[in-house]
């Protein structure tokens, strides 16, 4: 469940992550920030939500978009991702995950998936 107070450590992590975005995150952000003018959808990057920091969030649609690099193949990291996704779901968010490989090879398809998901929500 979403906390009623601000999680200061998550805010500090988000600030650091905004300055150190990965190549995949930067590429996706370059497109997602256009959603505001193209569709009237406000996307935020490296967003503190409760104790976690989502790569991207669209609060109005309760959608989180995560970019998973190679470290997300690790068993412990996968377990952590499942825990995060469950927490986000309990807080009312849906999570879309894209690997950096999928973003690199099928970028337009990833954008289409996001747009379809937004259409299904709204």
Automatic annotation (TrEMBL):
InterPro entries: DUF559, Endonuclease_DUF559_bact, Restrct_endonuc-II-like
Stretches of the chain forming a coiled coil according to its record: none
Lineage top rank: taxon: Bacteria
CDD domains: Endonuclease_DUF559
Every DUF559 domain range: 12-118
Classification via Pfam families: DUF559 (PF04480)
Protein name per the record: DUF559 domain-containing protein
Organism field: Roseibium litorale
